Automatic annotation (TrEMBL):
Organism: Opuntia streptacantha (Prickly pear cactus)
Residue span, Fe2OG dioxygenase domain: 1-62
Pfam families associated with the record: 2OG-FeII_Oxy (PF03171)
Residues annotated as signal peptide: none
PROSITE patterns the record matches: FE2OG_OXY
Protein name: Fe2OG dioxygenase domain-containing protein
Residues annotated as transmembrane: none
Length: 111
């Protein structure tokens, strides 16, 4: 069977298939809009050449100048995000994207 995998703590973990179910991947915009309630994960599929696999991709993006606001990320437009991803790929070879917009975490000690 094809195996869906996601990256966690620098390890690829298998997702055990459940018959008659779907896997839904949400992207970086949904992670930002949900204040990290929903996570965008790096993923891949290991294929078995003897088995068929069906994938359906449906991508939805905000309008280019839509302002994305969240308590965990500095405000950015989709255009700014896309430009950052392109810069990431050119400079480091892969997408960093959303982490470039994360606000610093402030810890408050209560007395």
């Amino acid at each position: 069977l094809p195996i869906f995998q996601f990256l966690k703590d620098d390890q690829w973990l298998d997702v055990k298939p459940i018959p008659s179910t779907l896997i839904v991947n949400l992207g970086d915009m949904m992670q930002a809009l949900s204040d990290d309630e929903y996570k965008s994960v790096k993923h891949k599929v290991k294929l078995n050449k003897q088995e068929e696999r069906v994938s359906i991709c449906y991508f939805v993006f905000p309008q280019e100048n839509t302002l994305i606001q969240s308590s965990k990320y500095k405000p950015f437009t989709y255009n700014e995000f896309r430009a950052q991803v392109q810069l990431d790929v050119k400079t480091v070879g892969s997408k960093i994207g959303l982490q470039n917009f994360r606000l610093p975490q402030i810890k408050i000690n209560l007395i």
